[in-house]
Write a structure and sequence with these properties.
The chain has 452 residues and is mainly alpha-helical. The protein has four domains: 202 residues, Glycerol uptake facilitator protein; 67 residues, no CATH class; 35 residues; 71 residues, GMP Synthetase, Chain A, domain 3. It is 64% helix and 12% strand. A hairpin with a 4-residue loop joins strand 4 and strand 5. Helix 2 packs across helix 5 and helix 3 packs across helix 6. The longest helix has 46 residues. The protein is extended and about 110 Å long. It starts with a helix and ends with a strand. The relative contact order is 0.07.
């Protein structure tokens, strides 16, 4: 019992010393005022948002990550989203109304601005930065939740640092809105829905994280003189929260299921669809259709092998999945050529990158060997100064490496020769001293000294 109490005491001491948020907590009212000030989207804030949207749209259009990051740093979108979480934590219905209104205004202006830009831009090619914002994953949910927690903790403490800009970059609220605008401008409903889906999920989980942070740090709830009004406000807040969270929970559940499905399908392909003399050129996994499409090149895979693989789908929790295999291009099957090209280019890039890395390592090794062979890494001005002090009789020093062939054994050795030109011939003691010093400098125990 005493040991258990001691452990509890040590844990409590560790928590209070290292993890207690109240140690550097900012004045609560200052934190609330800081979040409130960022909620309104009028005048300057709205113009900054419009400019940030244009910058993000340009970055997505030209596929520039640096420009997109710059737009996320400029964007003031975090304000109303954190305001919603704060209002729920404080029972502040007026703040919630202002935050939701500003959130809708900001969303509308951002999507409209992006739509206008993409309607007139001459660059209409879909870039990878755009595609990355059309299909949210479970990782986006975790990033939004943890990023929101980091944001509220930073705002509530005195040492704010550069956390808020980092949260804005990590949670990436601006790019999905611009991608939604691209979807409207190009008439692609799937891009619009996918991007807006990602934006909504990020917003909800940042608000949730803000609410959690507010409650964990015990912010003072708003007090009402009229208890009936307090009950009504709480009811409104609860219903709005449920109305917001229900679709978010449902969407997140689908994201989790799709992530598990993708992982299981990739595991199945890696374990069951590897055949001798055949290579997978392309793969396409569709969670909605419950379908795995694979394109093979090389030796044809037999129907029995494909059937056996199809039968083993159930072992990977893919029992209702249909396996579609394409082999060759002459069977009239609908093969996604662009996907194949993408896979080929990806393999080419990966192999080229690997080869370049190997070549760089080989060049560095050869440079080191050349430096060792020529002695250029240790012969220099400093060596001459040492020689003047230690062996003033030496006028010049030449060091070179040579190959020696043993005729009887055909063995080839590398020998280091040091040739010195002296004012006078050194005696045996001086000669031994010179040889030892040169051996230490060159690192060659078999160095041969020649005196001219």
């Amino acid at each position: 019992m005493e040991l258990g109490n001691k452990r509890k005491f040590l844990l409590r001491k560790f928590f209070n010393e290292y993890l207690d948020l109240n140690r550097s907590k900012e004045d609560e009212q200052l934190t609330v005022d800081a979040i409130r000030s960022g909620v309104e989207f009028k005048g300057t804030n709205l113009w900054v948002l419009i400019f940030a949207t244009f910058i993000a749209s340009l970055g997505l259009n030209v596929n520039s990550t640096a420009v997109i990051i710059g737009a996320m740093l400029i964007s003031p979108l975090m304000g109303p989203i954190m305001g919603v979480g704060l209002s729920i934590g404080l029972n502040d219905f007026e703040l919630m109304k202002r935050s939701l209104k500003s959130y809708l205004v900001a969303t509308l202006f951002s999507v409209t601005t992006a739509t206008i830009y993409f309607s007139f831009t001459p660059l209409d090619e879909v870039q990878s930065e755009l595609l990355a914002r059309t299909s949210p994953t479970i990782y986006d949910v975790f990033i939004a939740l943890v990023g929101g927690l980091a944001g509220i903790v930073a705002l509530a403490t005195k040492e704010k640092g550069n956390v808020i800009p980092g949260v804005a970059i990590a949670t990436a609220l601006m790019p999905p809105l611009c991608t939604a605008g691209f979807g409207i401008a190009t008439g692609n409903l799937l891009y619009f829905l996918g991007a807006f889906y990602l934006y909504f999920i990020n917003s909800v989980f940042i608000s949730l994280a803000t609410y959690i942070g507010v409650r964990v740090m015990h912010f003072q709830r708003k007090q009402f003189v009229d208890k009936a009004r307090e009950k009504l406000v709480k009811r409104y807040i609860i219903w709005i929260t449920i109305g917001t969270m229900c679709p978010a929970v449902y969407l997140t559940y689908n994201i989790v299921r799709e992530t598990f499905y993708q992982s299981a399908a990739n595991h199945f392909i890696a374990e069951e669809l590897q055949f001798p003399d055949s290579q997978i050129l392309s793969r396409e996994i569709s969670y909605d259709k419950r379908e795995i499409k694979v394109v093979f090149v090389g030796k044809e895979v037999s129907k029995d092998q494909i059937a056996a693989a199809q039968h083993r789908l159930a072992d990977y929790n893919l029992s209702k999945t249909n396996l579609v295999v394409f082999q060759g291009m002459g069977d009239g099957s609908a093969v996604d050529i662009s996907n194949i090209k993408s896979m080929v280019m990806e393999d080419f890039y990966r192999n080229s990158e690997k080869r370049l890395k190997e070549q760089d390592e080989e060049i560095n090794t050869l440079r080191k060997q050349l430096a060792d062979f020529s002695g250029s890494d240790w012969m220099g001005k400093q060596l001459g100064q040492e020689l003047k002090v230690l062996f003033p009789e030496i006028k010049t020093l030449s060091v070179s490496k040579s190959l020696r062939l043993s005729v009887d054994s055909s063995r080839i050795d590398t020998l280091t020769y040091a040739i010195i030109d002296c004012q006078r011939v050194p005696d045996s003691k001086s000669r031994d001293k010179i040889v030892k010093w040169l051996k230490a400098k060159t690192g060659d125990a078999h160095l041969q000294l020649i005196v001219e």
